[in-house]
């Protein structure tokens, strides 16, 4: 009663509910991670521990938010796909976005010591985020393909760049050297000059990281005869696989199934 005089201030709030029947993508990206990675001496071009930390946070995101059906990560970014029927916070964009970003950031800080036991966290990491609606599962596939192709292009360039720098070129010279080169030229350079077969580099670097739920067979216990008793369980899994081609999606149709 006493507060009713002030109630009208609520009317200034915008209704930011996202349209129904759309898949929702939340993409977060590390803020100034060029500097953050230098301050924490990340290995170049790919620091395995830093990527594993991002991936561990993404796995925890799927375990915490049941409406996230898929996540794809590369470098300092992660995309989270929420199913098209989600009623999470009535689909309010600012709620979904702020919760995703703040929960991920907290996980990153909490898990830091696990992945960098000998490195102190020197500055508070932060992530920006955006939310995008896509009306069809097919467009989600294209969105994810876009991110994975980007991962490939950047990783191939960065692998060349850092090998050139480590072999004595300045960063400027390495950049000049790579200007205008095609994918084929870069593979050739890596092989001829550095003895690196690009396709043999870790899949996590080349393909990025996918997180989703899958049926996994687990041994629950042994019976008296020593036979394993197995049970299939829905588990959050991490994989570094191709999601550009149709194979993954035809084998995992339940992920982007529409109601
Ligand atoms: P912004 O705030 O605009 O996102 P940024 O400095 O974070 O700026 P990005 O384009 O997001 O720029 O690029 C992220 C940078 O973080 C990369 O260029 C790379 O230097 C660094 N980085 C992120 N993850 C890793 C990693 N696992 N190993 C090495 N370097 C990394
Ligand atoms: P939502 O997730 O929708 O924000 P909420 O439970 O966080 O829900 P709010 O409307 O944000 O609800 O209200 C915050 C509530 O948190 C308060 O009503 C109060 O119960 C509790 N709270 C916040 N700060 C304190 C505090 N310092 N001491 C005691 N209780 C607090
Ligand atoms: Mg960034
Ligand atoms: Mg980035």
UniProtKB/TrEMBL annotation:
<feature type="binding site">
    <location>
        <position position="29"/>
    </location>
    <ligand>
        <name>Mg(2+) 1</name>
    </ligand>
</feature>
<keyword id="KW-0460">Magnesium</keyword>
<keyword id="KW-0539">Nucleus</keyword>
<keyword id="KW-0479">Metal-binding</keyword>
<dbReference type="Pfam" id="PF04446">
    <property type="entry name" value="Thg1"/>
</dbReference>
<dbReference type="GO" id="GO:0006400">
    <property type="term" value="P:tRNA modification"/>
</dbReference>
<feature type="binding site">
    <location>
        <position position="29"/>
    </location>
    <ligand>
        <name>Mg(2+) 2</name>
    </ligand>
</feature>
<feature type="binding site">
    <location>
        <begin position="29"/>
        <end position="34"/>
    </location>
    <ligand>
        <name>GTP</name>
    </ligand>
</feature>
<feature type="domain" description="Thg1 C-terminal">
    <location>
        <begin position="139"/>
        <end position="244"/>
    </location>
</feature>
<dbReference type="InterPro" id="IPR024956">
    <property type="entry name" value="tRNAHis_GuaTrfase_cat"/>
</dbReference>
<dbReference type="GO" id="GO:0005654">
    <property type="term" value="C:nucleoplasm"/>
</dbReference>
<dbReference type="GO" id="GO:0000287">
    <property type="term" value="F:magnesium ion binding"/>
</dbReference>
<feature type="binding site">
    <location>
        <begin position="75"/>
        <end position="76"/>
    </location>
    <ligand>
        <name>GTP</name>
    </ligand>
</feature>
<dbReference type="InterPro" id="IPR025845">
    <property type="entry name" value="Thg1_C_dom"/>
</dbReference>
<comment type="similarity">
    <text>Belongs to the tRNA(His) guanylyltransferase family.</text>
</comment>
<keyword id="KW-0808">Transferase</keyword>
<dbReference type="InterPro" id="IPR007537">
    <property type="entry name" value="tRNAHis_GuaTrfase_Thg1"/>
</dbReference>
<feature type="binding site">
    <location>
        <position position="76"/>
    </location>
    <ligand>
        <name>Mg(2+) 1</name>
    </ligand>
</feature>
<keyword id="KW-0819">tRNA processing</keyword>
<keyword id="KW-0548">Nucleotidyltransferase</keyword>
<feature type="binding site">
    <location>
        <position position="76"/>
    </location>
    <ligand>
        <name>Mg(2+) 2</name>
    </ligand>
</feature>
<feature type="domain" description="tRNAHis guanylyltransferase catalytic">
    <location>
        <begin position="6"/>
        <end position="135"/>
    </location>
</feature>
<dbReference type="GO" id="GO:0008193">
    <property type="term" value="F:tRNA guanylyltransferase activity"/>
</dbReference>
<dbReference type="InterPro" id="IPR038469">
    <property type="entry name" value="tRNAHis_GuaTrfase_Thg1_sf"/>
</dbReference>
<dbReference type="Pfam" id="PF14413">
    <property type="entry name" value="Thg1C"/>
</dbReference>
<keyword id="KW-0547">Nucleotide-binding</keyword>
<comment type="function">
    <text>Adds a GMP to the 5'-end of tRNA(His) after transcription and RNase P cleavage.</text>
</comment>
<protein>
    <recommendedName>
        <fullName>tRNA(His) guanylyltransferase</fullName>
        <ecNumber>2.7.7.79</ecNumber>
    </recommendedName>
</protein>
<feature type="binding site">
    <location>
        <position position="30"/>
    </location>
    <ligand>
        <name>Mg(2+) 1</name>
    </ligand>
</feature>
<dbReference type="GO" id="GO:0005525">
    <property type="term" value="F:GTP binding"/>
</dbReference>
<keyword id="KW-0342">GTP-binding</keyword>
């Amino acid at each position: 009663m006493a507060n009713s005089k002030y109630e009208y201030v609520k009317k200034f709030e915008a209704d930011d509910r996202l349209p129904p029947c759309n898949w929702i993508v939340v993409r977060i990206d590390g803020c100034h991670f060029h500097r953050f990675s230098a301050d924490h001496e990340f290995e170049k071009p790919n620091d395995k521990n830093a990527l594993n930390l991002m991936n561990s946070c993404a796995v925890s995101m799927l375990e915490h938010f049941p409406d996230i059906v898929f996540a794809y990560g590369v470098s300092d970014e992660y995309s989270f796909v929420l199913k098209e029927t989600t009623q999470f916070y009535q689909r309010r964009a600012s709620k979904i976005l702020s919760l995703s970003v703040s929960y991920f950031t907290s996980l990153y800080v909490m898990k830091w010591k696990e992945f960098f036991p000998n490195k102190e966290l020197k500055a508070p990491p932060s992530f920006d985020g955006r939310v995008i609606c896509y009306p069809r599962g097919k467009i989600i596939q294209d969105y994810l393909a876009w991110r994975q192709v980007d991962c490939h292009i950047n990783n191939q360039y960065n692998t060349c760049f850092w090998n050139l720098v480590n072999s004595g070129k300045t960063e400027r010279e390495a950049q000049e050297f790579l200007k205008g080169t095609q994918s084929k030229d870069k593979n050739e350079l890596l092989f001829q000059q550095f003895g690196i077969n690009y396709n043999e580099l870790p899949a996590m670097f080349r393909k990025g990281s996918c997180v989703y739920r899958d049926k996994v067979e687990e041994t629950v216990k042994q019976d008296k005869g020593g036979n394993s008793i197995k049970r299939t369980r829905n588990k959050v899994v991490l994989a570094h696989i191709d999601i550009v081609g149709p194979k993954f999606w035809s084998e995992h149709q339940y992920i982007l199934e529409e109601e």
